[in-house]
Amino acid sequence: MKRNILISAAGVACLIAYAAGAGTQNPVDAKDAYAHLQTLVGEWQADTSMGKAHVTYESIAAGSALVERETMEHMPPMETIFYLDGGRLLLTHYCDLGNQPRLEAHAFDPQSRKLDFAFLDATNLASPAASHMHNASYRFSDANHFSTRWELYENGRQKSVETFEFTRVR
Q1: How many CB atoms lie under 10 A from the CB of residue 83?
Q2: Closest by alpha carbon to 118, among 83, 90, 156, 141?
Q3: Residue 136 class from Cβ within 10 Å (0-12 exposed, 13-18 middle, 19+ buried)?
Q4: Does domain 26-168 have CATH number 2.40.128.20?
Q5: Residue 59: closest CA among 83, 91, 78, 77
Q6: Average pLDDT rounded to a whole number, residues 45-65
Q7: Is 22 helix (H, G, I), strand (E, B) or coil?
Q8: Could you state, in order of their start, the residue ranges of all structural domains in the chain?
Q9: Is 147 exposed, middle or buried (0-12, 13-18, 19+ CB in 10 A)?
Q10: Phi and psi at residue 97, in whole multiples of 5°?
Q11: C-alpha angle 55/110/41, rounded to 5°?
Q12: Predicted confidence (pLDDT) per residue in 1-15, tens digit
């Protein structure tokens, strides 16, 4: 019986140590990351493998949300909304696939100006295996250039990656 108690105590100690460390790995300053996103307000263009992409960013609701509207040749428009939720930076992507994945910022490096988002959950997703945007990253090069990288997942694995290099139009 002592053995079971010792194992349980050791297991609990490991869980406590893991939980204490889990929240301190790669903390994201959500407000700083969101401030970088707000610099995108305006119009942007990119030449992509799917044709010319046009993106606009608009700050709405007294600056509490940033709307990205993307149009591309031969594709229906899509929107992504970025917002703070307490200490987290989230986005909801309204995809032409008909689902709405939510991603959470999980890494932001102010020096390299790279912001990474990871899948949190989704609405209107037929099943976990259904095609959906799973990860995204933004890299702010300068006031007139940024890039994005979006990962499409299907059947629990990465199916494709699209990278876009945007230039400010105005």
Answers
A1: 18
A2: 90
A3: buried
A4: yes
A5: 83
A6: 95
A7: helix
A8: 26-168
A9: middle
A10: -75, -10
A11: 25
A12: 444 443 444 443 333
Q: Could you tell me the pTM of the whole model?
A: 0.83
Whether 24 has a pLDDT exceeding 50, the answer reads no
How many other CB atoms are there within 10 angstroms of residue 122's CB atom? 21
Q: Which helix (H) or strand (E) holds 45?
A: strand 42-48
Segment 119-128 shows an average pLDDT of: 97
* Strand 114-123 relative to strand 65-72, pairing: unpaired
Query: Per-residue DSSP letters for 98-146?
Result: S-EEEEEEEEEETTTTEEEEEEEEEES-SSTTS-EEEEEEEEEEETTEE
Tokens 């995204």 belong to residue: 136
The mean per-residue pLDDT over the stretch 42-59 comes to 95
